[in-house]
Amino acid sequence: MTDDEKKTRKAHRAIRPALGALSGALAGFAALAVAEPVAAWVRPQAAPVLVVGGAAIDRTPAAVKDWAIREFGTDDKLVLRAGILAVLALSALALGILALRFRRSAASGVLLFGAIGGAAAVARPDSAGITDALPSAVGAVAGAAVLFLLAGRLRAPAAEGGSVPGGWDRRGFLLAATAAAAASAGTGALGRALQGAGSRNAAASRDRVVLPPPASPAPAVPAGARLRIPGISPFTTPNGDFYRVDTALAVPEVDATTWRLRIHGEGVTRPVTLSYDDLLRRELIERDITLTCVSNEVGGPYVGNARWTGVRLAGLLAECGVRPPSRGGPADQLVARSVDGMTIGSPVEDLMDGRDALLALGMNGRPLPFDHGFPARMVVPGLYGYVSACKWIEDLELTTFDAYDAYWVRRDWAREAPVKTQSRIDTPKPFARPKAGPVMVAGVAWAQHRGIDGVEVRVDDGPWQEARLAAEGSRDTWRQWSFAWQASKGSHTLTVRATDGTGEVQPERRTRTVPDGASGWHSVVVTVE
Ligand SMILES: Nc1nc2c(c(=O)[nH]1)N[C@H]1C(S)=C(S)[C@@H](COP(=O)(O)O)O[C@H]1N2
Ligand SMILES: [Mo]
Fold it and tell me: Among 265, 325, 344, 454, which one is most buried in terms of CB atoms within 10 A?
């Protein structure tokens, strides 16, 4: 062996692990890319990263979910997706290096990942069955093939007549790697394009919607309900600013023209299946209703107030023959099911007790945004979202609380969860440094369906002082308040508490969000300069 050949061999030995890792990365890329068109054909929601992410979300303990929401807010899903991709990437690199010595085992390793993805897909609550395993399975086969092939190039002896010192087929590897990368990129792009067609149909169906004027418009919001104070939450939360909490890694994009809602179950003497147009043809009502998440910490952001347009649920249920338990009906729970397999159970009694429980189609004058449940969702004044506000709804089943536990109930949250009285200081912000003198303290308070009758503010350990209440929208909306504070220099703690429409004062005792919502007073510390 000449010195030159020795050098080349040494160099090759040094870069071999890198080439192995590269092969693994290309195999992983090929697997995910090939899964895309298969998912477009089978079901976009069955794509490997989505099903594995969904499985992770379903298995996350309530405490960890709470932590993730606290740390990452609505970005928690981005973080999860990035985490899954990172794990897959590291595994792919490791399998690639392994393939240098154990080509078959490494390729089998890729197949194992496919099996895990396929199993996760079939186990999803919205799974369409065994076909959901196809994107992961076919992708894994492609990935395994790419890895087997590339690893082969890495140790293949020089081609006949080729002048490749060091015993590997450099040109062959380069060609194969480039071809694999190009084919994967093309296949992935094709898959994405095919999936885009579904999204476009859904978007077009939403664009075509014209919400008819409601038979019962929302009562006018009194002028005095909207305080003009910088930093206060506006009385009506614009759709783009409305909080979003759900388990959907990819927002379901439902085509309203093919969508149906089924109502059935115990005590339903006349089951029905309704189309979107059927709902639009019904008598619509419009109401301002504040929606709150049970995961909202004291002072947290997961609350918003919107003008909802929809069909009154009580009427719809009554037409199907449903009677509330107090009038002898056999079902005490209504389980709403969404297209993504979420289940949300609400007390039938509450839905039919005269409150404006809605099957909502519109939000602030627009068809529901996809993020907020298009084509239809529920909104029930006085109940936390997880026991009332099912988005992307497709099925309503009458049953009993004894017979069925909905999604969150199986994860340690309470069966029934009326909204707790809460108040929040929107301004000043924590750690603000206002100037001494008059400082406007303001915020919102909510106790849906009971209403807010009083708000008090306390400075440090001083006496509770009445805040000025804005006019009330309704018992189902939050209420703005303000307090003109004569601020003196130094560090101060501002605390707020509300009194609901039953005369009950918001309790001081802090509780966690699990199992039925946080309680306690909101405080903000500021330094007056
Ligand atoms: N399909 C579906 N509906 C859902 C959820 C979900 O995860 N999936 N989350 C519920 C919860 S916990 C809340 S608080 C509200 C939030 O509604 P928003 O995202 O429109 O604010 O939706 C409810 N409806
Ligand atoms: Mo929630």
Answer: 344
Question: How many CB atoms are located within 10 Å of the residue 60 CB?
Answer: 17
- pLDDT band (50, 70, 90) for residue 166: low
- Provide the residues around ligand 2 (an ion) whose CB is within 5 A: 245, 293-294, 385-386
Residue type, position 5, single letter: E
Mutation test residue for ligand 1: of 295, 371, 391, the one with most atoms within 8 Å of CB: 391
Q: Are residues 436 and 295 in the same domain?
A: no
Same domain, yes or no: 267 and 360: yes
Domain count, the chain: 3
Tell me which of 25 and 125 has the higher pLDDT. Answer: 25
371-421 pLDDT, tens digit each: 999 999 999 999 999 999 999 999 999 999 999 999 999 998 999 999 999
Q: Is residue 46 part of a domain?
A: yes
Q: Specify the DSSP element, H or E, that contains 192.
A: helix 170-207
**More confident call, 41 vs 10:** 41
**Cα-based distances in Å from 49 to 54, 86, 92, 102, 307:** 8, 11, 14, 27, 36
Of all protein residues, whose CA lies closest to atom 19 belonging to ligand 1?
A: 244
pLDDT value at residue 77: 86
Reference 414, options 500, 511, 491; nearest CA is: 511
